[in-house]
Amino acid sequence: MSGPLEVAVVSAERSIWSGSAKSVVAKTPEGDVGIMRGHEPMLALLVEAPLRIELEDGSKILVAVHGGFFSVDSDKVNVIAESAELAQDIDIDRAKAALSRAQSLVESEDLSAIRRAEARIQVASA
Description:
Radius of gyration: 15 Å
Helix content: 10-25%
Order of helices and strands: EEEEEEEEHH
CATH superfamily of the largest domain: F0F1 ATP synthase delta/epsilon subunit, N-terminal
Largest sheet: 8 strands, mixed
CATH class of the largest domain: Mainly Beta
Number of domains: 2
Structural class: alpha+beta
Shape: globular
Strand content: over 45%
Number of strands: 8
């Protein structure tokens, strides 16, 4: 087996990234899943967390993914996120302010907003 994975990351709003990659690491409710060429077909839910794409040259692309799912079949990985942002598109000050607001509303138990802000900061800070 040789050659790269073909990866596409899309959100409800737009296409985020597509291209060839060496590997993809995504976070599911059960934990991290690493995908390389020859991976068995699968379909899994995504949680709010960074999605890591390693390119053939060893460089990495980080995407803050907020829900959705991904599928793997025939060395093609399709990530369909509720929303997603590339690291370079994230305003880290805005993300930190959103985290602060979400943490102050913890009594309303909006943990989703906290996880979303934390994923954005993690991706933008990497």
